[in-house]
Amino acid sequence: MAGLIFRLIAKAWRRRRAGADDDGDEDPHAALVARVRRRRQLENLYAKYLVYARILLLVLGYAWLAALASPWLGRGTYIDENALQPGQVLTKWGWDDVHAADRYLESLDALHARNASKAELTAWVKDEFAKLGISSSTQRYAFSTATGSVNGTNTYAVFPAPRSSGAEAMVISASWLSRIDEGAGAINQRGVPTVLALARFLTNYSYWAKDLVFVISDGYLDGMQAWLNAYHGLPQSNLVAEPLELSSGVIWTALNIDYPGHSFSHLGLFFDGLNGRLPNQDLMNSVAMITSHTGGVPVVLYDHIEQPFSLSRHHGKADWHVKVLKELHTYQLRARNILRHFGYEVVGRPSGVHGLFHQFRIDAITVFAVPAVGPHGFHSLGKLVESSLRTMNNLLERLHASFFLYLMAGPHAFLKIGHYLPCAIILSIAITLTGLGVWRQAGWTEYDEWDAEVEYKAALEQTTKESPAPVLVTEKTFVPRKRQRAVMEPLGVMLATHAIGVLLLFAMRFPSFYNTITIAASYIGLVLVAPPPLKNGLRSTGGRAPFHTVLHAFTLLSAGMVISIIAVLNFALAASLAAVLALPFVSVSPQSHRLFKIGLAALCAPAFVNPGFAKNVVREYELLGGWFLPFVCVVYVPIVLQSWMAAVLYI
């Protein structure tokens, strides 16, 4: 039956095609004429409704971006990988282990009290590992950067798995510097003793199916970067590091411990990785579940302590009023988490030592003990770390079932990629459609002055003899004409701006650059807002489209393309770029008000650069291989320079 229906449909289609061929024999140009007419109709509709489409897309994109923190968007977290079984083990961490951690802390405090050197601290950690019967070693390293040299010594130990061949491994780490103020100098006072106490406790049991690797990295991020590069045999041009004497299998998961205070009230989860990478969500969800149930510790995202909504403060108010206030309170909490996430993801900065593992396809997070007077300490932290490690020990393969692309709104709430990605894509579509509209506009003149004058004279001559006087035509008839769009000149300017970006990337690697960075940026602005004779020389004349109009179209199209491409790689960067550029880029046109164009030129002008921020970005680029600096220099700065030039020439 299905075959008969298919044959009938095919026969009808062949007859219809044959009829179309017969009609074509009668009028060979009919199809071409109809095609041209349809194309012109579509172009006219596009030009007619482009303004409304842009406004609609801008409103929808910005509204969606603002709605990301809404409690109505997203869903609660859950575990996808059945093999994990979080919180299903009976923890054995006890008060004897807490006492051991206290002894390690006393020894470390004594070393700090007499201002022990890095070499003494490293030797002490290595000796403590050796006393436990675990193979340990050290690794010295040195980075050379534009902002100065960075050196240190890492200490690590490897406990082979009793029940396997050592093909896989887990890492338990702590850095000497805490992540407080992004590694500004606060000591991870209890993080290092926690790792030593865990090494003493965990090596007493034989149920481990993966090697346990304990790492005490020097500094904040630099030590772990050197250790990971050496572990995976990855060379780095500005790094000189000793090879590792001890090795293990493929690292699947890692847990970094940051405990800078004497006690803590909440456990914060840090998950943002280098260059916007994220761990598998199952790891985060498992640790969050274990922290809440096994450890009995309130879990938060980052170090944001969430104050619960107080009903007593709103006693006597209407139910709908209380409900609205509660929704606004939830929105505020979620917005704070999302903005913190954006702050790390936009610049590609890891929120902790764990973020360096993601580049090697290792799922890792940092558990941060939020400093407080109490009530939790070594006992609670040890229980939840033990349970988390035993959960990771259950894995038979790498984590893959859950999400790698997500947006965390809270410790137990997240947004899928389909919930947050459209806002950046919608804004990029608005920019792209505007670019296509400017490109179409560049191909047509609004009127041809010579033809309009001819039409004016012809209208005067067409007077009847019955008229006592000639008919006066008060308005000219404007005839649209096609004009040539120069492509090579705008492309040359675009290549020149990208070349400037490459030179800027290399220049920022020299220390002397930071003393003159404001002067150099101001010089670029002086060149771009050149005197009127120079601007007039750049304008196209005759029957060609204006230079700046074509440049404006190409800039809009390239900006929309860039935002769409990086939206999946780094959504926070794409959304921030779209939010900053969409409104000014879409609003500028030849008909825009002069003051608005001047304001846009001032807004887009990179006239001032913060030297301190620039130094941090360069440091992360040279130490960690961050992508933010190359992106800004080679992509963002050229786009801004092109749009700035187009806006100035529109004036």
TrEMBL record:
Bilayer-spanning residue ranges: 45-65, 420-439, 487-506, 513-530, 550-583, 595-614, 626-650
Source organism of the structure: Exidia glandulosa HHB12029
Keyword entries, A-Z: Membrane, Transmembrane, Transmembrane helix
Protein name: Gaa1-domain-containing protein
Membrane is among the record's keywords: yes
Gene Ontology CC: one annotated term: GPI-anchor transamidase complex
Pfam family, one: Gaa1
Upper taxonomic lineage: Eukaryota, Fungi, Dikarya, Basidiomycota, Agaricomycotina
Keyword Membrane: yes
GO biological process: attachment of GPI anchor to protein
